[in-house]
Design goal:
By secondary structure, the protein is mostly helical. Helices cover 54% and strands 8% of the residues. The protein folds into two domains: 33-52 and 224-312, no CATH class; 63-213, no CATH class. The protein has 16 helices and four strands.
Length: 320
């Protein structure tokens, strides 16, 4: 614990409770294009705490964020509706033993907090066969498993997920609505803020109902993972280590401006254009869409495709 700063500790508690990690970080300050400076910008971006209060991460970024997932679990286990909705006594037999758990008296031994955790454990067991699919976020698989196991609680569980993520994984329109409200609030335009907030929360309610009814998938606004392996740009195994031995791998649909700047010939302006284009549409369907952005030359696009092939050959991490 000695290397953790006080700020880091605060983010792990207050940041989780405030749902800070759903927001994007500010782009790093441009520096000259030498490799050492690019690496310093990469490290600064990784450790930055400059979150933008009116700019949300896209769905993939959120599902890849430890902080967002921590907030989601914090809210799930503290949902009064989920905590206080007990199952039939037989459900608890798998945790307490058949003889103990079969009777109604068993419920008296389980607190509401234990109750919601046991239901989440059951959902995790249900989703275990899907855990090996690297293209399906585990948090979304968990929510769908919970809804399938406990259909009368589905709307409540989905509401916790969607309110935490502002519905970004399901709807790009929702993302834009909440960001527009946040911008109006930042500028102090209270009339516009109230109007846009009401519209955004109304759309959130509609989206929650659609997801709960099965009319809209929770991952409807998630794009493909466009991985690149940049063997020419090495990073250290951890930000506090100095020896750079590992090739950097990035997903173009989640990469920060600093990560995009590690591509050959990509300066801060181009990295910002790529990130802005992705943000406006939610995600890129393919690298060919990235190639349509001003400043992405055919040569750079070809390099990116070659990096994709290198990543394919290197293989992905397997979930066990």
């Amino acid at each position: 614990m000695l290397w953790l700063s006080g700020l880091d500790g605060q983010l792990r508690t207050d940041g989780v409770k405030r749902n800070l990690f759903v927001h994007r970080k500010a782009a790093p300050t441009p520096q000259p294009g030498k490799d050492a400076d690019t690496y310093r910008m990469f490290l600064d971006s990784e450790t930055s705490v400059e979150f933008l209060s009116d700019t949300l991460k896209n769905g993939q970024e959120m599902m890849a964020s430890e902080g967002v997932i921590a907030t989601l679990f914090y809210r799930l286990v503290n949902s009064e509706k989920l905590r206080n909705k007990f199952r039939e006594p037989a459900f608890y037999s798998q945790f307490l033993g058949a003889e103990i758990g079969a009777g109604a008296d068993a419920l008296k031994t389980i607190s509401p907090y234990e109750n919601v955790n046991l239901k989440l454990f059951a959902a995790m067991r249900q989703m275990a066969p899907q855990a090996g699919d690297p293209g399906r976020p585990l948090a979304i698989a968990l929510m769908d498993a919970y809804a399938k196991l406990f259909p009368e609680e589905a709307k409540t569980a989905y509401a916790v997920f969607l309110s935490t993520t502002y519905g970004v994984t399901a709807s790009q329109e929702l993302a834009a609505s909440f960001e527009q409200a946040a911008v109006a609030g930042r500028f102090g335009d209270l009339d516009s803020y109230r109007q846009r907030s009401r519209a955004a929360f109304s759309l959130l309610d509609q989206t929650t109902n659609r997801v709960a009814k099965g009319d809209l998938h929770l991952d409807a606004n998630l794009g493909p993972e466009l991985w690149l392996l940049n063997e020419d740009f090495k990073i250290a195994p951890a930000v506090w280590e100095h020896e750079r031995t590992l090739p950097l791998s990035i997903n173009v649909n989640t990469a920060s401006e600093a990560e995009l700047m590690t591509l050959p010939g990509a300066d801060s302006a181009l990295a910002s254009r790529i990130a802005a284009s992705r943000h406006s549409r939610g995600y890129f369907h393919s690298l060919d869409e990235v190639g349509l952005i001003e400043g992405v030359s055919p040569a750079l696009l070809q390099i990116m495709k070659e990096m994709t092939e290198k990543m394919r050959k290197a293989g992905m991490y397997s979930r066990q």
